[in-house]
Amino acid sequence: MIYAPSHSAYAIENVDLCEYLASHGYIVIATPSLGLRSHTMTASLEGAEAQADDIGFLVGYAQTLAQADTNRIAVVGHSWGSLASVLAAARDDRIRALVTLDGSLRAAYDYVNGGPRAAGYVTPERLGIPLLYMTRLQDEGAIGSELLARMRYADVYLATLDAASHMDFSSWSLRMAPDAAFGKRTRAQSAQAYGAMARMVERFLDARLRNDAPARRQLDDALAANRPPAGFVSFAIKRATGTPPTLDTFLEQLGQQGFEHIAAIYDRLHAQNPDLALDPLQTHDWGMKLLRERRAADAMQVFRLGVKLYPERFDFLYDGLGQAYEATGERDAAIANYRQALALEPGQAHARERLGALGVQ
Fold this sequence. Notes:
By secondary structure, this protein is an alpha/beta fold. The protein contains 14 helices and 7 strands. It folds into 2 domains: 237 residues, 3-Layer(aba) Sandwich (Rossmann fold), CATH 3.40.50.1820; 80 residues, Serine Threonine Protein Phosphatase 5, Tetratricopeptide repeat (Alpha Horseshoe), CATH 1.25.40.10. The longest helix has 22 residues. The chain starts with a strand and ends with a helix.
C-alpha cells in the first residue's frame, strides 16, 4: 500500500493508519508531498502530477522488494494526495485499488472532470479499479462528484464518516492539534472516528485487493442491509456498469475466447476506448515469444493484428508474420509477407535470408 499525504505534508502524516495496515500484512511505503521545483507543494496540476510521479516511483520501488506481491498494489491518499493518487492510477495499470480520504479532488476537481483544465488521461476507461471514497458529512455529494459519476467501469464505495473536520482523517493532526481545534467534539470522539476510518480502509483493501471472502461478505452485508458500519453516517456503492476497455480486459477476453478472436476483441474495445493501443514492438515481441513456445497459429493471429494496425510502417511485423506462416507450412503466404517486409525496408536481412532459403530470388 502506497500512502499519498496531503498538500506539502510529511510521509508520517498518517502513521497510525499506515502502522495499522502494516500490522495486517500490508507493506506500506510513502514519500512527502513535494512540489516539482520546490520543497513546498504547489496548488496546480503540475504539482499534483509531480506527486503522482512520486507514487509511480514507489510502485516501481515495491517491485524490488522480494516480499511484496506487486500484482496487488493500492494507493491511499488524503486530501491533495487523493488527487495525486487518482492521477497516478489513471497513468499506471499496476495500481489495483484506490482509497481517498476526505476530499479527493475537493479543491481542484476541475483537474479531473474532463474539462479544459483537466488532465486528459483521467478517463473512465483508465479508472477501472475499485475506489473507496470517504468523506465527512458536510462534504457529502459536494464538488468532485463529476469524477465519481464518470467512473462507470469501477465499483465506487461511498462512505460518509461521523467526523467533524478535515483533520479527523490525519493521525498527525489528531495527536498534535490543541484541544481547542476540535470545537464541539472532543479529541477522543475524533479518535473514535479515525479508528472507524482505519477499519473501513482495511476491510475495503482486504475485500478488493486481497480478494478476502469474509471481508467482501462484510461489505456486501452492510450494503444489502442498508446499514452503515459503526462510526459511519452512510455507506453505499455505485456499481460498475461494464468492463473497462483496457489492455488488461483485452488480454483477459483473449484468454477466454482464444487467439482466433483477437482482432474482433481489439476492434470492440478500441471502439469504446480510442486510447487503447498495441505498441508495435511489444506486439512483435509477443508474437515471437509465441513462436518460441511452438504456438505458431497463435503467433500468426498476433502478427496479423499487428500488420492490420500498422499496414505500411513496420517491416518487422511482416517478417514475424512470414515466420508464423512458414512455421505452419504456408509457404506462399510466408513468401508474400517476407516480400512485404523487404518492400518496407530493403535492408531487412532476415526476410531476405528466408526468401533465399525458400528458393525465391
